[in-house]
Each structure stands twice: as structure tokens, then as C-alpha cells.
Design brief:
about 45% helix; Beta-Lactamase; 2 domains; PAS-like_dom_sf; about 150 residues; PAS domain-containing protein; single chain; five-stranded antiparallel beta sheet; 5 strands; alpha+beta
Length: about 150
């Protein structure tokens, strides 16, 4: 009889532990959804690069801006694309205005500076606009940077 009670108690503990794990997973999923909503609600263009310069995240404002600025293929500015290679290519084609941005991103990625900010002019369908780019490191074991572009 005692063995049966021990077994029932063990089963009950396992069931409670399983219920706790399910609640934990649900909270994690709700938090992830909440964080994504927050990032997509920001009124700035936001992109995250990994340590090699590949885009790992863009928010809705980034995507909207790509479409609004007539980028023929918005996926060219999306996840999986190497942002540094795009900057380097623009410099190689004579677009020297990109050089400070490229070098600033590299400086943060390489840990030479803690952050980088730079004001620049950009031709858009609405005319010439002024923006500020800010680059900050991602402080985890994967590294990378967060880049924001804010209209001024």
C-alpha cells in the first residue's frame, strides 16, 4: 500500500512539474510576442546585424522604408543579407558618403568604440531628408550590433 502511495505522489509531482513547464513555455512565448510587438512599434528603422555583418532582424519600419524608397527587391535589405557588403559595394562604386557609416559599424563590431552616431542626408521619394544612424553593440555571447536610423 505504501508503495502505491509513493507512486501516486511521484506521478503527482511529475504532473505538477509538467504543468509548471507548460506555463513557463507559455510565458516565454507571450514575452517573445510582446517584445516583437514593441520592436515593430518603434517609430524608427531598426536592424540587427550579427558579428559578421549579416542582418538577423529588421522591424516593420525598416521594411516599410525599403518599400517606400523603391528598393526594387525589399529582400535585398532584409534578413540574411550582409549589410557590410552592401555598404562596401556602395563605397567601391564611388558613394563615399557611406564610408563613415561603414567604418563606424565596423568599429562597434570590433569593439574599438562603445557606440557610433552619425548624421547624414538621404534622397527619398519625399525629397532630401536628414537622418541619424546609431550603432550599439548587442551585449551577449553572440555579439553583433543594433542599428537605428531616425529622421531629424
Amino acid at each position: 500500500m505504501e508503495h502505491a502511495q509513493d507512486h501516486r505522489a511521484a506521478v503527482s509531482r511529475c504532473e505538477e512539474r509538467e504543468a509548471q513547464l507548460k506555463r513557463f513555455i507559455q510565458v516565454l512565448q507571450e514575452n517573445e510576442n510582446r517584445y516583437m510587438t514593441i520592436l515593430n512599434s518603434l517609430p524608427m528603422q531598426l536592424v540587427v546585424l550579427d558579428g559578421k555583418g549579416y542582418i538577423t532582424f529588421v522591424n516593420h519600419e525598416w521594411e516599410r522604408n525599403a518599400i517606400e524608397n523603391d528598393i526594387a527587391d525589399p529582400s535585398l535589405a532584409g534578413v540574411g543579407i550582409n549589410y557590410l557588403k552592401i555598404c562596401r559595394s556602395a563605397i567601391d562604386q564611388g558613394c563615399d558618403e557611406v564610408r563613415p557609416i561603414y567604418e563606424g559599424i565596423l568599429s562597434v563590431l570590433e569593439g574599438k568604440v562603445k557606440a557610433f552616431a552619425y548624421d547624414y542626408d538621404c534622397a527619398t521619394p519625399r525629397g532630401n531628408e536628414r537622418f541619424q544612424i546609431t550603432v550599439t553593440p548587442v551585449n551577449d555571447e553572440k555579439g553583433g550590433v543594433i542599428i537605428t536610423h531616425v529622421g531629424k
